[in-house]
């Protein structure tokens, strides 16, 4: 755009601005005053028979006491359901006594670490029993009777083959104390 066209555009915009200002302030009242000065022709007052205050309702609300339910009214989380009341005495079960559940599985080795085998694309875990180190992938046996089920970056799940009992071993480092 040439310099002459820019100047011509600026002059035209100035004239339009001057016309708008003249119309708004000199030619009559401002737009804001004109818009709010008259009410719409379709306005009708509300049909209220008795505009008196309902003092009995106000007095009832004044006497109302707030009884908290223990719920935080500013939280969208629902409170826990109320506790069910148990009967005072439950009859003993009839029937044969069930054997106690088997004791928890105690695994004689610890989960020490893992690696991802690039060739087989399997994760292999390192397990130690004192000075002995065992390397096994998922599905393999350790010490002839413990099958490795899953190996993750923080734990390994082990199953005893004879009893199908399972245990989860958390990873322990060289300086970590057993948990």
Name the descriptors.
single chain; alpha+beta; four-stranded antiparallel sheet; three-stranded antiparallel sheet; 3 helices; flat; disordered C terminus
Overall 3D geometry? Answer: flat
Total helical segments? 3
The total count of strands amounts to: 7
Residues in β-strands, percent: 15-25%
**Gyration radius from CA atoms, angstroms:** 42 Å
How far is it from the N-terminal to the C-terminal residue, by CA? 79 Å
Proportion of residues in helical segments: 10-25%
Average pLDDT over all residues: 82
**What ranges have pLDDT less than 50 throughout 5 or more consecutive residues?**
175-179
Name the assembly state: single chain
Walk me through what this model shows.
This protein has helices at residues 3-26, 31-36, 55-63, and strands spanning 110-117, 122-129, 132-137, 141-142, 146-151, 155-160, 166-170. It has 179 residues and is of the alpha+beta class. Among the domains are: 1-35; 110-170, no CATH class. The strands form 2 sheets. A 4-stranded antiparallel beta sheet has the order 4-5-6-7, with no helix packed on it. Strands 1-2-3 form a 3-stranded antiparallel beta sheet, with no helix packed on it. It is flat. The model is unreliable at 175-179 (pLDDT under 50).
